[in-house]
Amino acid sequence: MTPDRRTATPPKGADVRARPGGSAAEVFGTFLRLGLTSFGGPIAHLGYFRHDIVLRRRWLDDRAYADLVALCQFLPGPTSSQVGFALGLSRAGWPGALAAFAGFTLPSAVLMVLFAMVAPRVGGPAGAGALHGLKIVAVAVVAQAVWGMARSLCPDRQRAGIAVAAVVMLALVSGAAGMLGAIVAGAVAGLILCRGKAGAPACVLHLPVSRAGGLAALAAFAGMLVLLPILAGQSQALAVLDSFFRAGALVFGGGHVVLPLLEGEVVARGWVSHDAFLAGYGAAQAVPGPLFTFAAYLGAVLDPAPNGWAGAALALTAVFLPGFLILAAALPFWNALRARPAPQAMMQGANAAVVGILGAALYDPIFATAVLDARDFGLAVACIVLLMVWKAPAWIVVLVGAAGRVALALT
Predict the structure, then answer these.
(1) Which of 22, 109, 110, 136 could tie 293 with a disulfide, CB 3.0–4.6 Å?
(2) Interhelix angle for 124-153 vs 62-74, to 10°?
(3) Does the residue 28 lie in any domain?
């Protein structure tokens, strides 16, 4: 009998297939809550996803989740949104993929457009304290993810060594280049060191994308990248589509990397002033969900039109689309590759490197920018205990972190 993946641990040696078992409504509700509570940037988002989907709902296991994270780290685009898109696709097919994207993205996108329209200012000690508290919550979320994934993905000296080597590599080479280099080096090390360490197989995710569909997605990605610059001169809408699509297509390493690309596209062209760009960037730090929704703000304040809600929808679609197309192109070949002995060993090494990447990010930028004094450290420890010992839901930890830092700011 095939065990229920939501309630049971699969027996060793079982061929576990995480088939679609939910509805688009279930996926939307799950990701809507994540979209409302996932503060702290893409690395923290991956921690929130693991807590809610791997540990709480058991849609897949840690190995399959880490494999998916490693794949999305290789690809251009917003890593956390790509992971969420693939999780929704596996759970409820294409409606689930769209539901995951909508649920995770719409809260911050709507908030960013509203900010563009009414220009609310978050000021004073209470507002600053709440924003700082959300950074402290991210420390707890990522610490839990690092600890849990290290226990399952680095169970021996070889893989623990790969994780430590990834931390060292990121100390020497920062940014997207360091992350990609660490994953590649981890995969090579896994091929050498991890043969024969397969153990129980990871979930085989049901990903309803045929090879023909994957090749069509790749052709659409390449075609738009080539044709949009040619068509951009025909209308302002096509020019906006081209600019935001190109920015989304060239991003490796998460949301913050897209900011200089967007600045080069919209500020240099005179569509958005430098002051408006910086104001929107500041607001993007205060909302949950993917940082790529900064594009919705820029689309809303564009001059000339399209702008407002129409400009926001166009810019938001264009910046996310390339990452989803390239992911759809890769998914048909993913399960087949990771089922073979050599790719299994490589993925074990890459997964260990992902643990190292999360560990490095836990220190910088997450811990380094959130914990500024002993009071911050105490609040971070309290959030970690709530999450890991008391097993409190992530949204409660978010409220405690924000309220606790407001109280400290006011005193």
Answers:
(1) 109
(2) 110
(3) no
The residue segments making up the domain with residue 310 are 211-328
Q: Quick check: is 12 in a domain?
A: no
Please, which residues have CB within 8 angstroms of residue 273's CB and are 6 or more apart in sequence? 267
pLDDT tens by residue, the chain, 411 residues: 333 333 333 434 334 445 557 789 999 999 999 999 888 777 788 889 998 999 889 898 888 898 888 888 778 788 889 999 999 999 999 999 999 999 999 999 999 999 888 754 555 677 678 778 877 887 887 788 888 888 878 989 999 999 999 999 988 987 667 777 888 899 899 999 987 765 555 566 788 888 999 999 999 999 999 999 999 889 999 999 999 998 888 775 555 556 667 877 888 888 988 777 777 776 776 788 888 898 999 999 998 888 889 999 999 999 999 999 999 999 988 877 777 788 878 878 887 887 888 888 788 877 888 899 999 999 999 999 998 899 887 778 888 888 999 898 887
Q: What's 232's DSSP letter?
A: G
Would 321 be classed as within a structural domain? yes
The answer to the question of residue 363 being in a domain is no
CA atoms within 13 A on the CB side of 155: 10
3-state secondary structure of 17: strand
